[in-house]
Amino acid sequence: MQQKQFLWGGAVAAHQFEGGWDQGGKGPNVVDVMTAGAHGVPRQITQDIESDQFYPNHTAIDFYHHYKSDIQLLAELGLKCFRTSIAWSRIYPNGDELVPNEAGLRFYDDMFDELIKHGIEPVITLSHFEIPLHLAREYGGFKNRKLVDFFERFAITCFERYQHKVKYWMTFNEINNQMDTSNPIFFWTNSGVKVEPGEDPQQVLYQVAHYELLASAKAVIAGKKINPDFHIGCMISHVPIYPYSCNPHDIMAAEIAMRQRFFFPDIHVRGYYPAYALKEFARRGYKLDITAEDLTILKQGKVDYVGFSYYMSTVVKADVNNDNDSNVVNGALPNSVDNPYIQKSDWGWAIDPEGLRYALNRLYERYQLPLFIVENGFGAIDEIDSKHQVHDQSRISYLNAHIKAMLVAMAEDGVDVIGYTAWGIIDVVSFTTGEMKKRYGVIYVDRDNQGNGSMKRYKKDSFDWYQNVIATDGKSV
Ligand code: BGP
């Protein structure tokens, strides 16, 4: 994989920043029926778009109408690349049409032209929690094999249309976070799936996983035919799991728990099911719809690089609350404990820059493929003063420490990292909470949790800091 320069960038996702949810012929997607949550109050998935509910993603930060001035700001920041997603339901409003929506395609043409004009490389996720609602409702989302074809059609449409504008692609965002089957939001947003009464969530998960991995492999195969210079990666959420102690039982508990992180990329990268998964299917008596032809496709559709998000680490202790079967690949971690050496953000996310170096080393040893940190950032409440200044020193400290850890992994450990895109480079709607007050950006957006505000953009202190990091190619950290 040849590339001219390190890809310093910023990342967002269509549903969290575009707005314009029903404009230009866009259909509703699975996030469009999710309400705003709050601290401790989870987001709800409503039956339909209900008039008495507030849906934060409908307007988001209205990039749809601000894209030229926003990209101008990103150019001023000096970004080499910009990661976003193509909202699937802008291109196929229902997901099962034969002909794409031209207005949706044109919107991304205009956005990519604008980025390229400023020398910013687009890095594109095909599915970042934006499955057309119709596919979730009428087909049961990725429980249904038909979704494989719909996704492949969508991918081919994007690859053909943007083959001269976009080189870096990823198939499914954080495909592995749905392994936490205890949280219905992850299943819904990743896959458009609701687990029905009587269904075994783990069995549903593995069937859904298979169809998505197959869809991803088919997209890789098709993409390479359209443009052999494409770099097509997977995207996983990577939260390293440490053993609580050197007790061998803790070490093994962490090792087994890490399969939650590795199950999807093991298949994306190697093109076959790992032994531990096959053993689990047999032990649980799961009969999954996996054909011999599917297995051939998985082998042919391996990814070129591993994209991942890194926000935090976690810890497990073997003798803690082992109520679930600890020999299970999926599910929430029943034996996690706090790390006494690590501070947490206001949202309880453990702040662990050294964990990024650890993550980079583990992923590189396991996969021997280029790595791309496509999300890393610090969600915090920002105060804006009367001069429209935001002194976000804690964000600067977080990002600085993580970038430093990445540079050490590259320089001292020899890990091949192709780029780093800071998450939520401009303030966006938080995914897990639907709030606006959980901000990540180096650019402030005047909008509150209820959708009020001027939508004006202001540079935070972190803007100048990151501009300098990019200008010095990381030497300033
Ligand atoms: C990842 C998602 C992003 C993003 C980020 C931060 O899981 O890929 O879409 O939002 O996490 O999460 P949050 O916005 O909930 O703080």
UniProtKB/TrEMBL annotation:
The protein, known as: 6-phospho-beta-glucosidase
Family: Belongs to the glycosyl hydrolase 1 family.
Active site positions: 375
GO biological process: carbohydrate catabolic process
High-level lineage: Bacteria, Pseudomonadati, Pseudomonadota, Gammaproteobacteria, Orbales
Keywords, sorted A to Z: Glycosidase, Hydrolase
Pfam families: Glyco_hydro_1 (PF00232)
InterPro entries given in the database record: GH (IPR017853), GH_1_N_CS (IPR033132), Glyco_hydro_1 (IPR001360), Glyco_hydro_1_AS (IPR018120)
Highest taxon, organism lineage: Bacteria
GO cellular component terms listed in the entry, alphabetical order: cytosol
Molecular functions per Gene Ontology: beta-glucosidase activity
SUPFAM superfamilies per the UniProt record, alphabetical: (Trans)glycosidases
